[in-house]
Write a structure and sequence with these properties.
By secondary structure, the protein is α/β, with parallel strands linked by helices. The protein has a single domain, classed as UDP-N-acetylmuramoyl-L-alanine:D-glutamate ligase, CATH 3.40.1190. It is built from ten helices and 13 strands. It has a nine-stranded mixed β-sheet with strand order 5-4-1-8-9-10-11-12-13, sandwiched between helices. A hairpin with a 5-residue loop joins strand 11 and strand 12. Helix 2 packs across helix 8, helix 4 packs parallel to helix 5 and helix 9 packs across helix 10. It starts with a helix and ends with a helix.
Length: 334
């Protein structure tokens, strides 16, 4: 029988588990302001500046979550030779993420997402605008060589490789091929947050996508559990994966393994949603740690669901700490 105590007892197993996170590194910048008046220049609200904060985003979010949950994380990706890149490295280091695998690409800027947020004394902060500065050209040449070389060197020291693909050019064919080769040599699992390009990740261990991404790949809607089970078995077979995971937002998580076993785990106690940013990153971090800790798959999905519930109650790309997850699990009945 599944109980809160049983799930909470898995959390110490995350301690010291080591993951190398490969993907697109984002410098998430938040400018906070208090609404003061309507501008005379245009029919828009004027915000009086209050604060600025930097949060590691993109593929850095799973790495930060791994560390916050008790594991160890090596970050592998690309930054530019600029101030946002320096700030991002400092933010990662302060959170305990190893940044030795972060390569400077002098031909592109650090990916930056600037969010302007209005906050008041008695209301939850609201995004007013977001400005993205990103180059999505695939990496190549010396930058690619450095990434692949580092991945080959670090894999013998880690328990898992985690791909977090945000479509900014790092997670591409040659990097994936190198990971598959070295993972086969050391029997290292590859965990994937695919962001839609599922066919790129054939032969990886566990592949996660959301409902819209799965339906886009399959070419039809997943309207009920029977269709889900059939479609996910097809996905698992075509992708030659051990496990396929589909996140379904407020409806929870569906999972199938290579043996054909399908199950759906609903959200135990739906929470008020403040900001969904970062929920998928928390889910994949928990699934990766649970996999290397040998947590039973169905129990791992309950842990991942609870992690997502914690993050959606926070503003921005929030990190989930072990104490947060332990507290959330404590709310479950049983």
């Amino acid at each position: 029988m599944l109980t809160s105590e049983r799930l909470r007892n898995y959390l110490p197993l995350f301690e010291g588990k080591c993951v190398v996170v490969v993907g697109d590194l984002y410098h998430d910048e938040y400018i906070m302001g208090k609404p003061s008046r309507i501008s005379r220049e245009a029919p828009i609200v004027v915000l009086e500046y209050r604060s600025r904060r930097i949060v590691p985003g993109g593929a850095t979010a799973p790495a930060c979550n791994v560390v916050a949950l008790g594991g160890k994380a090596y970050q592998l990706g690309v930054i530019g030779n600029d101030a946002p890149g320096s700030e991002l490295l400092e933010a990662l280091s302060s959170r305990g993420v190893n940044i030795d695998g972060c390569v400077v690409d002098y031909a592109r800027p650090t990916t930056n997402k600037l969010r302007v947020v209005a906050e008041g004394d008695h209301i939850f902060p609201q995004q007013v605008a977001r400005i993205d500065h990103a180059v999505r050209t695939p990496i190549n040449g010396e930058v690619e060589r450095q990434l692949v070389d580092y991945l080959r060197r670090i894999t013998p020291q880690v328990d898992a490789i985690l791909f977090s693909d945000y479509k900014c050019g790092v997670v591409q064919e040659r990097v994936i091929a190198a990971a598959l080769e070295v993972a086969a040599e050391y029997n290292t699992p590859i965990i994937v947050d695919s962001q839609g390009d599922l066919s790129n990740f054939r032969r990886c261990t566990l592949i996660k996508c959301n409902l819209q991404e799965a339906e886009t790949y399959l070419g039809f809607a997943l309207e009920n559990e029977t269709i889900f089970a059939e479609a996910m078995n097809r996905l698992c077979s075509e992708l030659q994966a051990q496990v396929v995971v589909i996140t379904r937002g407020a409806d929870g998580i569906s999972v199938v393994d290579a043996s054909g076993q399908y199950f759906h785990t609903p959200v135990a106690a739906p929470s008020e949603v403040f900001d969904v940013t970062g929920a998928g990153d928390a889910v994949i971090a928990v699934l990766a740690l649970a996999w290397v800790a040998k947590v039973p798959l169905q129990d791992a999905t309950h842990l991942a669901n609870s992690a997502g519930q914690v993050v959606i109650q926070k503003l921005g790309n929030a990190t989930i700490y072990r104490r947060d997850l332990d507290e959330e699990l404590g709310k479950l009945r049983g």
